[in-house]
User: Fold this.
Amino acid sequence: MSSNKKYWKSVEELNENSSIVEALKHNEFPHEIPTDEFLGNKDTLDSSSTTRRDFLKYVGFSTAAASLAACEGPVVKSIPYVVAPERITVGKADYYATVMADGFDFASVLVKTREGRPIKIENNKMASVLGGNNARVHASVLSMYDTKRLQGPKIDGSSVSWSEFDQKLGQKLNGLGGKSIVLLTQTFASPSTTKLIADFSAAYPNVKHVTYDSIGENAALDAFESKYGMRALPDYDFSEAEVIVSVGADLLGDWQGGGFGPTYAKSRVPKNGKMSRHVQFEANMTLSGGNADKRVLATPSEQKKIVAAIQSLISGGSANTGLSPELDAAVKSAAKQLRNAGSKGVFITGVDDANAQMVALSVNEALGSTIIDTAAPKMTRQGNAQAVSQLVSDMNSGAVGALFVVGVNPAYSLPNVNEFKSGLDKVEVRVSFNMKEDETGLLCNYLAPTPHYLESWGDVEMKKGYVCLMQPTIKPLFDTRQFQESLLKWTNNDMSYYDYLKTNWTNAEKSFNQALQDGVASGVMTPAAETAEVTEESITSNGAITLSSALAALVQEGESAGNGFELTLYSSTGLGNGEQANNPWLQEFPDPITRTSWDNYLTMSKKDADRLGIENEITSKGALNGSYVTVTLGDVTLENVPVFIQPGQAPGSVGLALGYGKKAAVQEEMQVGVNAYPLYKDFKSTQTVQIKKTGGWHEFACVQMQNTMAGRADDIIKETTLEIFNTKDASEWNHVGHVDYNHSEISVRDKNADIWESFDDTFGPHFNLSIDLNACTGCGACVIACHAENNVPVVGKQEVRNFRDMHWLRIDRYYSSEDTFAEETKTLEELPAMDSYSVVEIQSYDNPEVAFQPVMCQHCNHAPCETVCPVAAIGHGRQGQNQMTYNRCVGTRYCANNCPYKVRRFNWFLYSENDEFDYNMNNDLGRMVLNPDVTVRSRGVMEKCSMCIQMTQKTILDAKREGRVIEDGEFATACSNACDMGAIKFGDVNIPDSEIVALKNDKRKYYLLEDIGVKPNVFYHVKVKNTAEA
Amino acid sequence: MKQGKNLNSASRFSLITLALLLSFSSFLFAQEDTTATADTAGAAESETSPAAQGGDAAAGKALFNANCAACHKLYDRATGPALYNVTERRDREWLYRWIKNNKELRDSGDAEAIAIYNEYNQTAMNAFPQLSNADIDDILAYTNTPKPEPVAPAEQAGGGGGSGGGVSSTVILGILAIVLVMLVAVLFLVNNTLRKFAVAQGVELPVKESRKPIWKAFVENQFLVLVSVIVLLLGGAYFAYGWMMQIGVDQGYEPIQPIHYSHRIHAGENQIECKYCHSSARTSKHSGIPSLNVCMNCHKSISEVADATSEYSSVTEDYSKEFYDKEIQKLYKAVGWDQTTQSYTGETQAVEWVRIHNLPDFAYFNHSQHVSVADIQCQTCHGPVEEMEIMYQYAPLTMGWCINCHRETNVKMDGNPYYEKIHEELSKKYGVEELTAAQMGGLECGKCHY
Assistant:
């Protein structure tokens, strides 16, 4: 019909040789508009050849022509494969097991691909180690489609071919004249890579290998090495834990490689009247502190003393540790509980000090703890800080001839970055093996771009005797080559890395192909790992650490804290070490604790802030502003660091996230925050810094400012203690609301309390979603999974600040003070209306308890949004889903106003293919991650959680096609799949004896704001805290 | 696009009339043609039969088609060599041995056999121990059939006659028109002359009484004006609505594709099952445009269409054999198939088909749901594809069209355990035995819009 038609927008375009048309391609106007000349002189206006009438004629003609042309649809091309791969069926997803290992995040994943494009990361349920994924792992698929990636090898800034690259670099490497070649790599934990590096050092003289972690666990590695003779980290399985005492260890964050959430969450769900008890001593408010039963404020220096005290208390002593009476009592209580728990107790610490780590290991040994596993330790952190420091001084002395930087970015993340840079100047051959031309890449003369892990082969030994295989899920997007392939080339090995992996595979239990399909295999002892130690630069300056010397050192260091604020550097849940700084999903991900996105900030206690005159103010539009400070550590000064006043921050301490402030190969929108790595002096995460207030306001993009529920807590978050839960009737701690009916009170669950006619949902599937507040740790994996599955747009910092964030699923964080909710309500009622809010607000500042609550559309059976839509764009399905029809929506936003849960999101702008925004939906590469089964919403349309109807419909269709009944556990949503904590469960309540039915009948079940009678299909489980002191 | 289609049918109609006009003469031509070819065939047979040792070419043809045609052609090289006159190149005894078990022959060290094996990329030929010497004689007799001469000239003669007829009818029409014009002119002149006569004779011509013009009367009748304005407005609105509802509906969309692929030949004449090529319709949301390797499953050995003389010919008056053969060459070029060496060159070129059925992004449609679960014929939505020379959009693909079908169509539940319980409860609820898609919840917005 229209294949051979020419479309035009104005008459001029019909003229083939028009210079105007050519000019218009580049400029908005063909010539500079002489507006002054034109409008300023009345005569010229009169004599103008184009009269007003002519003008109107042109306008009329163009409009008519344009609207006529608009009646024809565009020609759409469909390009099938020439030779279709056997396994790909267009329109059907394939799943591949692989493993993420970027040096910071290690995780077994399942990758969903459509038409050969990876579009989503799922958890690999076959993996017993690190099979659950955090938010960064879920978002990593988008990092592959990063426009800032290097697209081919370069020498001195100009693009070359790989063969030219090999040839030129080979010449250089052979002509180094005795100077050493140093490989500065990330932690690979890969037996084959280790072997390959050994091959390489055999082929070239004087090769050194230095492993570097941008945020390292040097202290813990040193301690473990000293005690168990192996540079690795102990593993923990918290599922059977009865008492967990943590001193500054954010076990739900990235502490010692992270990934402890799933087993921790298992121990937190009350079963047979029992659950674990978690005591947390910490300075920053962390996820772990938020989830703890008891959180005790302790600055880093106090933490050191606490570690020493616990050791002496466990070993039967009663040391006088010089702690404040409150702390002393808390420590004694914790130690007592630990002792009582015996082998079911575990003591962990995040104090960045080899002595403290040593003490922790010996405490667990004394307890006989079965929670800690030292026999098969984790290999996911191997960085050696001493070796890195040594390398920097070697570089400065000119002893290094060639430096291969692999997967790390020292020019950004080294604390002594200036020393490194000056040293780098003296290195002749500087090769960067990285996905991007980052800060280090800019200083290198050879750039050898590497592929993303979804385009690579590899093996990763996450834990001793447990290997995961990495396989590509897409052909490399760019002209990249794996570091390992390069090593093979340069050692004159014709093998591909795939063949190399295969020949190294010596597992008797699983064949290589089976392991590739599963992604994991245990019981592997590769000979390669044994040869590893030879090439590794092993420098441990501390020498052997003995327990007694460690204790003495700890107490002494605890005393000698200098003047100033004690800073604890941490990695944020969103950005981690900053490797994925150019990932808009992660930038927009609100921090679970501060609920602030697009930033890092100095967290400070209210008390200290008041003392320094630092303020956080909420503007008239509801957005948050904060004061700036200058942070000084020795000769390092960080200017304009915004301050976020954090409830529960230990007075005298401050916190700052690493991984921000990255500039190179990061889009302008995402160059946010300050780089805190210069404060990471000597690779120690705790420092004593000076803080001075400076002028100006920083604009935060914080999505949740209220720190109180203003007395309505009982309907939103229900909390109780284990003691009450075990002894009292459910009606006492899981109160069901009442309403008036015929002048008497009836339960809201009573039939008469319902004014609506109910849907008949007794047949076919009827979906319910269950959220267990005990198991939810607030990690946010579900938020990113929802983002990826449902094509949720990224809106940018300013729009988030305007509360126009589009997250379908948010995790609300609530603080509660020591007062009970009832007291808070009472206080509120007694106060005059205008004062009440601020009074309850301030109380929670000292050391609040925290609760996380994922909230998405509650899919009410009597949905208030459905009744107010003037165009019936919202319908209710028989399966219980509240269905939003985008193509019908006209954008009145009545529904959002009428939603009691505030889960509806409005598209204020067109977020895809719009030049005003520059996130993944606005470039061809980033759009490849979109889920083809979900509509990309347009401007002016309301959207919200659909309960992943595309996934439930697919499950149903598969069953229909295969002619079978759907079993329990088949239905899933993106969030329930992503939740490795087991907090979010999804299922069909019409399947008898299914898990969801059991959860629905559980006495902990409650509905959000049940009193309003909207009958949601999402329910929660009351949060139970184990408050029992020893 | 609609007009285009109409035009097409109009031209077809005129051709048919032409054909009817000329049927008599062309019928005569055809008679002569067939006798002529029969003669030549007979002659060829009688010529070769003594050499063929009594082989029956007709029986041989059947055997050839059943056993050999997958890899051999008579006059062209295919997977194996062209077989025309093979008896002249090879010894008959050798041929017996080769056909019955060529591997044995090769293993025996026969140089000729090994040479030919190597020439054809070491592709081993099947063994045919079931064929008797007589059968092989029959096949060899058939292979000696000479290539029939193309009968194109005869066809062209017919075509020429047709176009001549076209010219003459125009001429006739032209002449008729001229006659008519002359008639009008003559009448006018006659009338004029008569008037002059009347004036000259003094005959009183009746003078028409000047009446009020009808338009004036109409304007003065305000009621009539109002009614007609209303009627005009309503009518205008009706047509405007109808026209505007066409926007975005591409029913009949019939774009020109980069390779002329005839569904008529494939699905119609050759009765290839739709899902042989569109295999993903069974399991996926997309029916899928077949990748070119699927085409090559058959087209490796089909490099040209049979010409008009063959009973299998697909050639029509609009599309000649040359036209179709050229299209097959396009396929070979795209997939990188070298006909002379019978191998892939590896140089491929994706084909950019023009998509005909364009559902908007916000509508979800799954083929497997309809094709596999509901067992709906492809033709229900795609129309008589087996008759389409050029594929076009048959259905309007509007939401109303979908919904109507969902309201009227009963869901096929028999023998599908998935539906058992649902069927039981729903049929109780609605008091019916058969359930429509609508009763199953097929009208819920969220089932197609997410």
